[in-house]
Amino acid sequence: MFGSAAILIVQSKQGKCSIKVVIYVTFMSGRNPRLSYLLDGAPVVSGLRAKQKPEPLVGCGSSDGFDSLFRLNVSAAILHAIFAIMTLIVGLQGNSPFQVVVTRSLPIVPNPIPFPFNSSECAGQTYDDVYDWFGCIRENFEDDYKTGLVEDYGYAVISEESGSPDTVMPPFQTSYLVTEEWQMWTLICAFCVLTSISHTLIAWPIRDAYEYWLTRNTQPLRYLEYSLTASIMFVIVLTLTRVTDLYLLLANALLMCCVNVFGGVLEWVTLGLPMEFTPRPWAIRAWAWLVSALVFVFQFWQLWDIYDQTVAPWLDETNETAELMQQLFGFVTILNSVILFCFVTFPLVNMVQFLYYTNKQCRSCMQKASKDDVYFALRFEAAYIFCSLFAKASLVIIVFVAAVRRQ
Fold first, then answer.
1. What residues make up the domain containing 347?
2. CA angle 45, 48, 49 (to 5 degrees)
3. What is the pTM of this model?
4. What is the C-alpha separation between 96 and 250, in angstroms, rounded?
5. What gap in Å lies between CA 122 and CA 137, rounded to an integer?
6. pLDDT digit string (tens) for 220-259?
7. 2-13 and 172-178 as β-strands: parallel, antiparallel, unpaired?
8. Residue 403 falls within a domain, yes or no?
9. What is the DSSP track for 145-175?
10. d(CA 116, CA 206)
């Protein structure tokens, strides 16, 4: 059914001899596990010898490459501090010509709501069904009401074939959220200060850890700084390119932050086994969790903020046709709420999984029923599948029902 081979390796170091037996078991089908043991029964983590610490690079008139790097970091810290001071002086004197302008442009419902959407009466009859109401409007006014909305209120007809009210789009309105209150120099000063602090830290307080990381061809700390400074810098570039939309600026800042978090995680995983100055797994997880939480909160804040501007006015109690519009747009409220609930379940499952694998007390508490790690790994996977199924099924069913009702 299978073949096996045993290899006897004799290693000698400084007069001492150690014997290691490596057993390979190869199945004809399925998995190909490798078992590696010392003669005393202890498992061998790796049969490879540890890499020798590389000799430091020499340059910049120094006999030690690390000393040159120390000087470079000190110079960078001083230079960015000078930039920050220069920017601060110029900004406080009012000599900065650039402002950060933030706007929001959405199809806002006109106030007051225009005819014929401002009354539930049509042809002398009061309607309590939104689709019958629109049928009456189409029969009695044909396309005249669309013409009035376009000419008098700036509506745009996005479909001539459907009589549904959301095929007549309200005009986009631009709200200026920030104009002269926010000066560009504050952002420039901020990333200069953060960069100077970063170089100062790796030049003095954590220099030993910094140099240790470099001997292993990695430096995850740089991405911690980049995740902040690069995000600020990209917002500056977008703003100077006349990008002013609130959602677009925030989304691009968070995307740039995520790019650098991924870079930091990639740097960290190359470190291998935890050692003295290696960032601890909890620190990497906390960093990734924090950024993920920021993106998550932004997405749903954006969703509900836009909802309040574009859908909620139709459903406001002061609108005479609010009950009719509830039949039309109510599913959007339900959909947004259900998706928010479903998406929250994923980080909850992930948090329980994280505590199980990192906290001994939590793991022992959950294992009171004498279940092993494989049992819980399968249960966690089942929980993710269930959450995913519920979220996707909810979206499909809610949208499907709403679409069928509009036929």
1. 311-407
2. 110
3. 0.75
4. 23
5. 7
6. 888 999 999 999 999 999 999 999 999 999 999 999 999 9
7. unpaired
8. yes
9. HHHHHHHHH--EE--SS---GGGEEPPEEEE
10. 69
